[in-house]
Specification:
The protein has three domains: 134 residues, Rossmann fold; 164 residues, 3-Layer(aba) Sandwich (Rossmann fold), CATH 3.40.50.300; 72 residues, Helicase, Ruva Protein, domain 3. The protein is built from 16 helices and 14 strands. The longest helix is centred in the N-terminal third of the chain and has 31 residues. With 387 residues, it is of the alpha/beta class. Helix 1 links the parallel strand 1 and strand 2. Keywords: Activator, ATP-binding, Cytoplasm, DNA-binding, Nucleotide-binding, Phosphoprotein, Transcription, Transcription regulation, Two-component regulatory system. GO terms for molecular function: ATP binding; DNA binding. It is found in: Cytoplasm.
């Protein structure tokens, strides 16, 4: 059932629009308001999927109403109804975020198409929000240890700023979770988070991957291609394992950070970018600087905020929560009932040396769920979790 509000001061036009929509689709629930003020009160106190709004109205005109609605419920698509002399105002309304405008008297086909498109857009917005919540949950930081709570506090403080963040810690500790949380809690959350694993890209291709290239820049460059920095414009770029980046690429990243400008490989034209950079490494970058493998000026540009993610061995008290989280997630993925772990099994897992950190624990939990009994016992851990 789609809930539609018609705000129009001319009763005859209200009735016509309401009749057209009600007869077109019996799933449309249509309500009416006679002016902008009463329309605003209805929007404030109800959930509508679409608003059709006249521009010229007493008390509060359509443009004023549009601006107020965008402040409280920006997800509602608003279609403006414009008289012959209102076209300039209708275009202004589009700039302010209106979905579309319809001229008076409304063309039936145009009206119905616009309504259908606006409702489809609203549904996509809702689905996207649900998907983002699911994605965000996938990158939730599990744990209540002092070390993890400290990181959560740091993220909450830093996320809303534009400060660059360098995340350090051993492999498998969840450094990418920090990057995702920083992005999701920032003002840039509606724009992309682009991840780049610097260690996985050959050194001769890293510059092209980050900054793009033009056709003919090198043998396999058969067409122009945008890089990761352009893809992350207005959003966040996560440079994972930045300690493995070549010195040549480091110099270009430094320029991008200093000037917010990048240049595609083989091009002369500069491209302006607005990107927040979060970097991560498992290396000691100060040692890399001493040995000439990492630029000190780049380090200081990246390390405005330092977040160190502890090894699992340094936060063993979080293992029960992590095991429970992974058990539920694996059961959901496999479509099975959640298997419980006995207290003795958990205690034994807390005594292990987790050199592979969270990643290793997740694999062990999955192995135990597959091979263990209906409840994972201490004996199951001894049999199947041994290294």
């Amino acid at each position: 059932m789609s809930k539609i509000l018609i705000i129009e001061d001319e009763a005859a036009i209200r009735r016509v629009l309401s009749k057209i929509l009600s007869e077109e689709n019996d799933t449309y629930q249509v309500e009416e308001a006679e002016d902008g003020v009463s329309g605003y009160e209805k929007i404030k106190n109800n959930d509508y999927d679409l608003v059709l709004c006249d521009i010229k109205m007493p008390k509060m005109d359509g443009v004023e109403l549009l601006e107020e609605v965008k402040k409280i419920k920006p997800e509602i698509p608003m279609v403006m109804i414009s008289g012959h002399g209102d076209m300039e105002t209708a275009i202004q309304a589009m700039r302010l975020g209106a979905f579309d405008y319809i001229s008076k008297p409304p063309d039936l086909n145009r009206l119905l198409n616009t309504v259908r498109n606006a409702l489809d857009r609203k549904q996509l917005v809702v689905e996207n929000k649900i998907l983002k919540k699911k994605v965000s949950k996938n990158y939730e930081m599990i744990g209540e240890s002092e070390a993890i709570n400290h990181i959560k506090v740091m993220i909450d403080k830093v996320a809303q700023t534009e400060a660059r963040v360098l995340v350090t810690g051993p492999n498998g500790t969840g450094k990418e979770l920090v990057a995702h949380q920083l992005h999701e809690k920032s003002e840039r959350a509606s724009f992309p988070l682009i991840e780049v694993n610097c260690a996985a890209i050959p050194s001769e291709l890293i510059e092209s991957e980050l900054f793009g290239h033009v056709k003919g820049a090198f043998t396999s460059a058969v067409k122009d291609r945008a890089g990761k920095f352009e893809a992350a414009d207005k959003g966040t770029i996560f440079l994972d394992e930045i300690g493995d980046m070549s010195l040549s690429a480091q110099a270009k990243v430094l320029r991008a950070l200093q000037e917010n400008i990048i240049t595609r490989v083989g091009a002369d034209k500069d491209i302006k970018v607005d990107v927040r950079v979060v970097a991560a490494t498992n290396k000691d970058l100060k040692k890399e600087i001493e040995e000439g493998r990492f630029r000190e000026d780049l380090y200081h540009r990246l390390a405005v905020i330092l977040i160190k993610v502890p090894s699992l061995n340094d936060r063993r008290e979080d293992i029960p929560l992590l095991v429970s989280h992974f058990a539920e997630k694996i059961a959901s993925e496999q479509g099975n009932a959640v298997k419980k772990f006995s207290d003795d099994a958990i205690k034994l897992l807390q005594e292990y040396d987790w050199t592979g950190n969270i990643r290793e624990l997740r694999n062990v939990v999955e192995r135990l769920i597959i091979l263990g009994g209906s409840q994972i016992s201490e004996n199951d851990v001894k049999l199947f979790a041994s290294k």
